[in-house]
Amino acid sequence: MLNMSKSNTLPLDPLPRLMLEPLVRAALLEDLGRSGDITSQAIVPAQETSTLQLRARQPGVLAGLELARLAFELIDPAIGFSVECDDGTRLQPGDCIAQVHGSARAILTAERVALNFLGMASGVATATAQIADAIAHTQARVTCTRKTLPGLRAVQKYAVRVGGGRNHRFGLDDAILIKDNHIAIAGGIRPAVERARAAAGHMVQIELEVDTLAQLQEALDLQVRVVLLDNMDIPTLEQAVRMVDGRAVTEASGRVNASTAPAIAATGVNLIAVGWITHSAPVLDIGLDVI
């Protein structure tokens, strides 16, 4: 259950327009197809103007407002977009997010793309907040993964931050994460770690995934700085945290939701990695209504 009494206090700036505009432009082009919005062209007079409001239809955390604004602007720069709520706002059903005024045709043409981005990003922020709220009384923090929708990683990771989570690596090039297949192909944990250290620059972090306490002990013997405790049950996680005893950053993963997260966090892990908050988060229901 989302705690609607808490507000997001993270100092977040919107993503730069340079990053967002290609995404919105591509979505609009996909929707416009070869003939444009033939429905609005047929029904709505060219000179008609309207005022509509973006409104929340269910509780959640707002994210992606700039994407929605860009959708309207790219169709018609003359459309007015008056913001009532900022990203990070805890929404209740009926809350006005923004007011949109201008060419009725243009507004209706941009509507679906604006809502698609806003609903997706707000859904990610809401899913993240549900877990972040559930573990707020502990030292643990929720973090995302690379399990993002293709082309939308920067937006979804921004939405995770809006929801009170933290970001894991952004891609294959900004950190080394040694997983089970790397270990198997390398011939064991030691050769995998040694090869990684030999190749990594001084700014590159190395994380090792372990499935058992025996693997964790080997990681500690090698002085690995970050360990991913993968799919361990609660008693095993508790023992793993005791073994680490502050010598490494601990990250837990596997079967995490708002109900299971508190027990995982109570083991003392530093981070809880959750893939579904980006790849499968339910879209937040937001509508655009004529007033």
Automatic annotation (TrEMBL):
It is an enzyme of class 2 (transferase). It comes from the Bacteria. It catalyses: nicotinate beta-D-ribonucleotide + CO2 + diphosphate = quinolinate + 5-phospho-alpha-D-ribose 1-diphosphate + 2 H(+). Transmembrane segments: none annotated. Pathway: Cofactor biosynthesis; NAD(+) biosynthesis; nicotinate D-ribonucleotide from quinolinate: step 1/1. GO terms for cellular component: cytoplasm. GO terms for biological process: NAD+ biosynthetic process; quinolinate catabolic process. One of its GO terms (molecular function) is nicotinate-nucleotide diphosphorylase (carboxylating) activity. Keywords: Glycosyltransferase, Pyridine nucleotide biosynthesis, Transferase. Residues 124-289 form the Quinolinate phosphoribosyl transferase C-terminal domain. Residues 37-122 form the Quinolinate phosphoribosyl transferase N-terminal domain. Its EC number is 2.4.2.19. Involved in the catabolism of quinolinic acid (QA). Belongs to the NadC/ModD family. NCBIfam families: nadC. Hexamer formed by 3 homodimers. PANTHER family: NICOTINATE-NUCLEOTIDE PYROPHOSPHORYLASE [CARBOXYLATING]. This is Probable nicotinate-nucleotide pyrophosphorylase [carboxylating].
